Amino acid sequence: MIDHLIPILAGTLAAATPLVFAGLGELVAEKSGVINLGVEGMMLIGAIAGFAFATQTGGGAGAGLIAGAAAGTLAATLFAILSLSLGANQAAAGLALTIFGIGLSAFIGQSFVSYSLPGLKPLDIPLLSDIPVIGRILFHQDWVVYLSWAVAVIVAWVLAKTRLGLLLKAVGESPESAHAIGYPVIAIRYGAVLFGGAMAGIAGAYLSTVYTPLWVQNMSAGRGWIAVALVVFATWKPGRLMLGAYLFGGMTILQLHAQGLGIRVPSQLMSAIPYAATVLVLVLISRDRKLLQLNLPASLGKSFMPGG
User: Fold this and answer.
1) Please, what is the Cα angle at 20 between 14 and 22, to 5 degrees?
2) Burial of 249 (0-12, 13-18, 19+ CB in 10 A)
3) What does the alpha-carbon distance between residue 222 and residue 230 come to, in Å, rounded to a whole number?
4) Residues in contact with 224: Cβ distance below 8 Å, sequence separation at least 6, in sequence order
């Protein structure tokens, strides 16, 4: 049994890494009062940009992740111009970005279907990797997994302990009040949205250059939507988001190991489990209105135009 459990748990960490990056980026954006439903589109744009750059320059996965972050940031800039500068409805602008990302990535990706990348080898951390069971699970991962842990710690620290975190919360709760005392609400929201775009771009690039180092159309497979749902599941707290990401990552890996574990369930049903679980969790969380009201940014999804 343990021989089956170790690869499932180790694979869960890698499978959840895109959700961690994308979810943390969306959490920061929503903390500032902006909901960006374009995460799926930004992930796909980051995926094709990272894969194309890595294959054409020979820079490897590291270069691909940087290119993915840049592409995601550009896509988020488009969303920010529409929703923050022009006052467009945030939900509509986000959905438009997702549709745009799906189409653009499919168009560009036609030229890269036959390419592949070597991916990244797991790090062999001295002493730690040799710890029975735990070493093979926690300390035998690629470096991007550890980068996601570092980003999560930094985001949690910034939100809880720094002036920037307080500004994000203030803008998310009452942009009118923040503006009245002289804070640049739009600039702060721009920064949060662009950070979210960079994280979504990295998440997409990880999929195409490391996790499955080749290009497949729509390879994000709904992970962007799960990332958005995870923010609500986590009640806008980074630690809970990490736990949620690994929960859904484990469900994704479980479907790949189901037959080896003797689970006789149709593969189509197993593939649907992460998405069914997402819906179920959102329904359960929505029933606890006090919990949502306590943590939900008061101005989430509401447009703010200085002087408007």
Assistant:
1) 120
2) buried
3) 12
4) 22, 38, 39, 40, 41, 42, 43, 44, 98, 200
Nearest CA among 31, 32, 74 for reference residue 49: 74
User: Which tokens go with 59?
Assistant: 């820079």
- Output DSSP code: residue 116: B
Question: What is the chain's alpha carbon radius of gyration, rounded to the nearest angstrom?
Answer: 19
Average pLDDT over residues 236-259: 85
Q: Are the C-beta atoms of residues 74 and 97 closer than 8 Å to each other?
A: no
Angle at 219 between CA 140 and CA 221, to 5 degrees: 95
Going from the C-alpha of 190 to that of each of 61, 299, 302, the distances in angstroms are: 28, 15, 15
Q: What's the token pair of residue 58? A: 């020979």
Tokens, residue 240: 């809970």
Q: What is the pLDDT of residue 68?
A: 98
DSSP annotation of 104: H
User: CA-to-CA distance for 146 and 141, rounded, in angstroms?
Assistant: 8
Considering the chain, what percentage of its residues have pLDDT values greater than 70?
Answer: 92
pLDDT of 281 > 70? The answer is yes
CB-based burial label for 250 (10 Å; 0-12, 13-18, 19+) = middle
pLDDT average, residue stretch 197-213: 97
Q: What is the Cα–Cα distance from 262 to 247, expressed in whole angstroms?
A: 21
φ, ψ of residue 221 to 5 degrees: the values are 50, 45
pTM reported for the whole predicted model: 0.93
State the Cα–Cα distance between residues 17 and 68, nearest whole angstrom.
Answer: 15
CB 189 within 8 A of CB 121: no
Distance from C-alpha of 295 to C-alpha of 281, rounded to nearest angstrom: 17
pLDDT tens digits, 83-128: 999 999 999 999 999 999 999 999 999 999 989 999 898 888 888 8
CB atoms within 10 A of CB 24: 29
What count of other Cβ atoms lies within 10 Å of the Cβ of residue 113? 10
